[in-house]
Amino acid sequence: xxxxxxxxxxxxxxxxxxxxxxxxxxxxxxxxxxxxxxxxxxxxxxxxxxxxxxxxxxxxxxxxxxxxxxxxxxxxxxxxxxxxxxxxxxxxxxxxxxxxxxxxxxxxxxxxxxxxxxxxxxxxxxxxxxxxxxxxxxxxxxxxxxxxxxxxxxxxxxxxxxxxxxxxxxxxxxxxxxxxxxxxxxxxxxxxxxxxxxxxxxxxxxxxxxxxxxxxxxxxxxxxxxxxxxxxxxxxxxxxxxxxxxxxxxxxxx
Length: 254
Description:
CATH topology: Metallo-beta-lactamase, Chain A
CATH class: Alpha Beta
Radius of gyration: 18 Å
């Protein structure tokens, strides 16, 4: 009997569209009914969209979304995985670009009976930048919700990475800063396919096509320069781009 060779599979895990303004609150937005002009001045319309990537070695989750529950009381990202045929217990790696609350909300989950928090993906190893963790815990910043990720400080299956490096010979990470001081991005390469996740430095396809500096970034000029650089290299090398906040195009093959 021939062995079944699993090819890389990318699953966007959309949690829906939201508007966000200077209050840093994510307000659900119904694209068919709601009017963006009725929201607070300066509101941004974004998707919140973690990704599951199934490789020969792993079931990888990139960032964890807002951590909202669905109407049945289940963690939404768990339900999204189940709806796509993936058991949350089968996730083997959780890669974290940074710890802003829309990317780290489902790192942990609270048992309402025991009043105790547990990691939401108990079989997985979590990979988080060491300096980003320290920054998120230290700063009084509305973008960080410490209770969502503070459990990483004492959990066993956590790897605190520093600088740039490689995980298991096929996942490369690089600290970019730019959006937040210690933001990092990932490349996953397998069988000639290279998948790139730029987190919030490269959150939407349209931002790859325009030269602009966003006020909400830690270093907007650097974000713009990195997007230009990645766009050029990605086109040359035929990367597959994953866009966390893109309403229409979460996965784009250049």
